[in-house]
Amino acid sequence: MIAAPVLAVLLGTAHVGDPATSNYLQKADEQAFNWINSNVDASAKFLISSEFSYLGRAVTASDGGMWLPLLTGHNVSVPALNSWMERPIETDFFTRTKVLAGYTQPMTEAEPGATDLAGLVQKNIIPVERSLSNSETLDAMRGLGITHVYVGARGGRSKPRLDVVEMRKDAQHYKLLYFKDGVYVFQVIY
User: Are the beta carbons of 153 and 64 closer than 8 angstroms?
Assistant: First the structure.
């Protein structure tokens, strides 16, 4: 009986036994996905919460929005992690993806082991943070075909990082379509 937990810790699989603390996808996300399937056009593309990873070489999703492509069929702003090794049809696609992620990242990172966003800006890997209402951010979103914004539920390892307060204040560019149990869906108005 004691061997299984010890092995799980040693092998780095202990999180499997406690999905409530390790999952990104929460029940509220699943409910929102059902709503999206019924109410959002299949051609919509979502801006989702993200963070820089692999020393700034990649961007990874940071909340349940990462499951949108698999559970709703909708495209998102963060490519699948293994695609960073691919050669995209649009040669500047990954650069534009990183720029948009840089514009939407909070610049204060206090978590141990987190990528230093200010350092990535200084190295010219990403641009300086912009507000979600900034014309450069909106242009970057338009250039990547973003039509909606998804902010996932908190819980587990999920870290929603998009500024919901700002989007709710900016009715000129963001129309709130869905809010329930901490999950937000906005339509982007250009």
Answer: yes
The predicted model scores a pTM of 0.82
* pLDDT tens-place string over residues 141-155: 999 999 999 999 999
Q: Could you tell me the two tokens for 164?
A: 């919901």
Q: Are 94 and 161 in contact (CB under 8 A)?
A: no
Q: Tokens for 78, please give them.
A: 């963060």
How far is Cα 56 from Cα 188, in angstroms, rounded to an integer? 27
**Strand ranges in 21-93 using DSSP code E only, listed in sequence order:** 45-48, 50-53, 58-61, 75-76
Q: Tens digit of pLDDT for each residue in 59-106?
A: 899 999 999 999 999 999 998 776 767 777 888 888 888 889 888 877
Q: What angle do CA 164, 23, 106 make, to 5 degrees?
A: 30
Residues shown for the chain: 190
Taking residue 133's Cβ as centre, other Cβ atoms within 10 Å add up to: 15
